[in-house]
Amino acid sequence: MARIRIFDTPAALARVLASDIARVLATQPTLVLGLATGRTPIPLYRELVRQHLAGRADFSRATTFNLDEFLGVGAMDPRSYRAFMKKYLFDRVNLSPRRMHFLNGAAAPGRGVQRECERYERAIERAGGIDVQILGLGMNGHIGFNEPARALVARTHCTRLKPATRRANAPLFGNRIGAVPREALSMGMATILHAKRIVLLATGSTKARCVERMITGPVTPRLPASFLQLHRHVEIWLDRAAAARLGGPERTALHRG
Ligand code: F6R
Q1: Interval between CA 67 and ligand 1 midpoint (Å)
Q2: Is 68 considered catalytic here?
Q3: How far apart are alpha carbons 212 and 232 in whole angstroms?
Q4: Which run of H or of E encompasses 43?
Q5: Is 104 designated active site?
Q6: What is the pTM of this model?
Q7: What pLDDT does 255 receive?
Q8: CA distances from 134 to 83, 163, 181 (A)
Q9: Of 43, 137, 207, 238, which is the most exposed, with the fewest CB atoms less than 10 Å away?
Q10: What is the pLDDT of residue 252?
Q11: Which residues does the chain have with pLDDT short of 50?
């Protein structure tokens, strides 16, 4: 069963998780981190910057792999997830640019995209796999851009974004849903599930229903996050609002840790 941790606020969650990551970095400086973008991890990235500035988090030998990128959005585009990571974390800590890995959203459609996905899988493998994968949770249950479907894709692939996902990302594109790409590149479910440790973050009441289904519902491609139930070392970090629909047994699991 996943280990569930519930905090009073997103800020408290971010503080504890950032200290945890700083501690892991201290004992394992070559840590390979899988990273998510979106609203949820922003407080975590702010706290990691704070830990770094206070001399408690050294990223100089760490490696990162981001989960996903919009198709057709190049590396220098301010709307890219790469730009997001630079803004919130990478420009403010001592990670080596050589060890920051992103999917190239500017890959040529067709064969180019396929080659890009294969390249990413190989790069993860060469790095020795992902040690700690940070995930957010889509309101429809997606992780990375593995959207609800009849079947899921195991490895890094090109995926069609659901209208709800495009709506959620509209703020990055001037609030114009029509401007949000229809496709994205994303790690697949197996890529994610092969991480040694997975830390999923969910905050806010809008995620409560999805959190409940992810933890207590069946494992189904209709809710990709439910596949995390199959992993040996998953932690679900929530604020009270996102945990609101969890019943006694799940909360007890938290206390036993
Ligand atoms: C982003 C990603 C997505 C988000 C999810 C939640 O890299 O992989 O799965 O984590 O859409 O987004 P927020 O945190 O904005 O609610």
Answers
A1: 10
A2: yes
A3: 19
A4: helix 42-53
A5: no
A6: 0.96
A7: 42
A8: 18, 24, 24
A9: 43
A10: 53
A11: 255-257
